[in-house]
Amino acid sequence: MTKITCLGAGSHSFGLSTLITLLQSEVLRGAEIALVDTNQESLDLISALANWLNSEWDSGKLISSHSSHQNALIRSDFVISAIEVQPRERLWQQDFELGSRYGLRQPYAENGGPGGFAHAARNVNTILEITREMETQCPYAWYLNFSNPLHRICYLINEYSSIKSVGLCHQLAIGYAMVAKALAGDYGIDGSDGFISSHADPKNAEHQHNMAVAGMQHFKIEAVGLNHFTWMVDLRDRQTGEDLYPLFRQRWAELPADFEPLTRKIFDVFELFPIPGDEHLCEYLPWMSSNRTKPWQKYDLSLYDWKYFEANRADLWKQVAEDIHFKQNIERYSHTHSEGAIEIIEAMLTDSDSLWEAVNLPNRGTIAGLADNAVVEFPAYVKRNGFRPTGQFKLPKGVLSLLQREVSTAQLGIDAVVHGDRQLALQSLLLDPIIDDLDLAEKVLDEILDSNRSHLPQFF
After folding, report:
1. CA 175 to CA 254: how far, in whole Å?
2. Short-list 459, 448, 360, 460, CA closest to 113
3. pLDDT computed for residue 336 by the predictor
4. What is the separation of C-alpha 56 from the centre of its chain, rounded to a whole number of angstroms?
5. What is the pLDDT of residue 337?
6. In Å, how far from its chain's centre is CA 14?
7. Are 361 and 376 in contact (CB under 8 A)?
8. pTM of the full predicted structure?
9. Could you tell me if 345 and 78 are in contact, meaning their C-beta atoms sit under 8 angstroms apart?
10. How far does Cα 275 stand from its chain's mean position?
11. 10-residue mean pLDDT series, the chain (460 residues)
12. Cα dihedral 423, 427, 428, 434 in deg (nearest 10)
């Protein structure tokens, strides 16, 4: 019997969609799904939902719930993790505002910049504790990671444990949506005018989704790089195999100038299309934080709406609780997007050698010029024993240099937290493209460590 343990099962971003796709899988009929969340209220709710859907759909799964990972991990085959130190939005806002006190304007503060360092650092000790437990309880299990900053967390697991892991992210969908918008006229795709931005704004969500679905139906993108920092190296018609990159370049240039202006500028300069959309791309670039030129205004880089998304999560779980209590609206749970976990698990269990277009794994020569232990994102075939890249890739020198800098920054940051090494932490911040002053870096580091003291005792 296959056992799948879901850590952070009450996650707003990944928990619900992951649970539903696991329950809907016929390949997993008879499997145990162990739900884990340290928030008892969230655990009780997601467990009640799982048991209700499992019964109503006759899914044939065994559901167990756990407030700690220790017992849940025993004999697991797959561990799906979407853990975050809570409260997520408030801590994210704290990371952004921390830099602001020193006149430092981070473009987003989630995955790159000092905010990315703090975000990753808070999760290091918990994830190391989980992997050590896995080495005892389920040493051959695969760890499927959704937690951000993804390539930093995946580097932590690969570098400091013996556990096999893969990072999964849906950001490639934004690339598909942008390609679909550009080629909408050539392929008769409706609704392209409604897709006006990749920004994390609820007004954009439906249009983003529809264009991404259309893009995946018509096109095949090959993208490589780092998570949230990937680059389209090939674009083809999914049915005929025709090379569409030249046509895409032409049609992209014809789009309104205010559509993804940062992506447009980077595409023009580096001649390779960046996949993530403006708001993730901006975190890794050295030119996005100048108080003199205010690039966040020039490129319309809006911040994440922390209060909205915190309230939205509360409203979602309130609706779920009502649906369970009144046994209503079950149809709303029948259709959800996949985050990739179910496809990876089914491919491994069936040894199918199927393609998944964005996995995050140690480089090991997949992208020339990056360290072997750099966690990079690329398309791969999935079999029982792991992953096989679709090929080896060579990126232009300018793009490669941007990636090399981020790899060094991220690895130094994780190494620093694991060892409680303040000097390595300082080096990480000084390499970060957001930091532009030596003394400022020390002040920001002191603030990060002090404000996260309870999560980082190794520094004190």
Report:
1. 17
2. 448
3. 84
4. 31
5. 82
6. 10
7. yes
8. 0.96
9. yes
10. 13
11. 94 83 97 95 94 97 96 97 93 94 93 97 98 98 97 98 97 98 98 94 90 98 98 98 98 97 98 97 95 94 92 91 96 89 98 97 98 98 97 98 98 98 98 95 97 97
12. 130
CA gap 249, 251 in Å, rounded? 6
- CA 266 and chain centroid, separation: 22
Q: At what angle do helices 422-431 and 397-419 cross, to 10 degrees?
A: 160
Q: Please give the single-letter amino acid code of residue 226.
A: L
pLDDT at position 15 is 80
The pLDDT value given to residue 99: 87
**Residue 223 and residue 176 in contact, taking contact as beta carbons nearer than 8 Å:** no
The predicted structure's pLDDT at residue 338: 86
Helices 422-431 and 113-137: crossing angle, nearest 10°? 130
Cβ pair 177, 215 in contact under 8 A: yes
Torsion sign across C-alpha atoms 363, 369, 371, 376 = negative
* Other Cβ atoms closer than 10 A to 439: 8
The answer for residues whose C-beta is within 8 angstroms of residue 348's C-beta and 6 or more apart is 142, 382, 383, 384
C-alpha 460/C-alpha 456 separation (Å) is 8
Q: Hey, where are the domains in the chain?
A: 172-298
Cβ–Cβ < 8 Å for 84, 123: yes
Contact 225, 231 (CB under 8 A): yes
Taking each helix axis from N to C end, the angle separating 88-100 and 113-137, rounded to the nearest 10 degrees, works out to 140
